[in-house]
């Protein structure tokens, strides 16, 4: 039987679908269920901040039907993250999502992905570094440095001129830039800021900050670079009744931070809307693999300042859902 004769016996819809499928295969496209995406970042999902990112990743995977893996070192370790990226590249995924806290440590792994023709999206950190490495898209807050400047200017305008910037991942480009931005923003009002290096161990955070405040009694405010520093310090401020003596501010949000702002204790939390950092890349990479579509610009998810009890209460319901 000739091909045209066989086609007579096929339903029109089946014929149409066959032609569409053939066209998609010819262009290297595939159905969403066959799309494989690796999300290889420096933050473990057990971290309050990164758990929201992972929620975004999981929701996007469910929405698209793509096969998505969230991969991260157990602790902040750029060398290990680089190894994990290389391992992901070897699986030949349809896209890779990375964070870029350390350009030097991760550049070789990133180059491997790009050289393999794998679409890469950078989230959360290293916007400028990623551009320099040739990563085509960044999704996250606008320059961490500029966000820090805005925060420093706010503090200076409020008469706060001596600040301790608590960095729980020294060497992470984004956190270093946050502290530098605060310092430079404060300088416009004649203020100063010093970096206090801590680990992600809550006891270590409290111990080191307590020692710093004892040695620098003229400190007016403590500014943490994320939930790893903020959460134990909220507890410490409560236990030691320090709210009237020092102001406390932070980057990033979480249930404890939102409650503290809602109670009128913390000055503000800076919201990077990290749920979108997890959700959007999966959506975009799936669209590229299934339809050949690609957004032409970076996407900025923040910063937003949650600086009043009313604003904090409005966000709390979303935080309970794991999306803020």
From TrEMBL:
Entry GO terms, CC: outer membrane-bounded periplasmic space
Presence of the UniProt keyword Signal in the record: yes
SUPFAM superfamilies from the UniProt entry: Periplasmic binding protein-like I
Molecular functions per Gene Ontology: carbohydrate binding
Cell inner membrane as UniProt keyword: no
Principal subcellular localization: periplasm
Pfam families to which the protein is assigned, alphabetical: Peripla_BP_4 (PF13407)
Domain Periplasmic binding protein as annotated: residue spans: 37-289
Name of the protein: LacI family transcriptional regulator
Organism phylogeny: Bacteria, Pseudomonadati, Pseudomonadota, Alphaproteobacteria, Rhodobacterales
């Amino acid at each position: 039987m000739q091909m045209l004769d066989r086609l007579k016996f096929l339903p029109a819809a089946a014929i149409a679908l066959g032609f569409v499928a053939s066209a998609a295969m010819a262009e290297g496209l595939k159905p969403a269920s066959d799309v494989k995406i690796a999300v290889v970042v420096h933050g473990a999902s057990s971290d309050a901040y990164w758990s929201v990112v992972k929620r975004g990743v999981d929701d996007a995977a469910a929405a698209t039907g793509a096969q998505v893996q969230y991969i991260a070192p157990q602790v902040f370790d750029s060398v290990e993250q680089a190894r994990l990226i290389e391992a992901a590249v070897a699986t030949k995924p349809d896209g890779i999502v990375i964070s870029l806290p350390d350009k030097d440590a991760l550049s070789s792994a990133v180059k491997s992905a790009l050289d393999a023709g794998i679409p890469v999206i950078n989230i959360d950190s290293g916007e400028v570094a990623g551009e320099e490495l040739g990563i085509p898209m960044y999704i996250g807050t606008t320059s961490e440095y500029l966000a820090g400047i805005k925060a420093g200017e706010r503090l200076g305008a409020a008469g706060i001129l001596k600040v301790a910037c608590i960095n729980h991942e020294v060497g992470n480009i984004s956190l270093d830039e946050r502290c530098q931005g605060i310092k430079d923003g404060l300088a416009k009002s004649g203020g100063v800021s010093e970096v206090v290096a801590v680990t992600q161990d809550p006891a270590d955070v409290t111990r080191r900050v307590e020692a710093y405040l004892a040695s620098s009694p003229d400190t007016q405010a403590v500014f943490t670079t994320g939930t790893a520093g903020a959460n134990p310090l909220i507890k410490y401020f409560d236990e030691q009744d320090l709210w009237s003596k020092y102001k406390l501010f932070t980057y990033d949000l979480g249930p404890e931070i939102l409650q503290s702002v809602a109670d009128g204790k913390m000055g503000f939390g800076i919201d990077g809307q990290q749920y979108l950092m997890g959700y959007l890349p999966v959506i975009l990479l799936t669209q590229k693999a299934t339809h050949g579509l690609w957004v032409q610009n970076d996407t900025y998810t923040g910063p937003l300042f949650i600086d009043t009890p009313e604003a904090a209460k409005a966000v709390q319901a979303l935080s309970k859902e794991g999306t803020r």
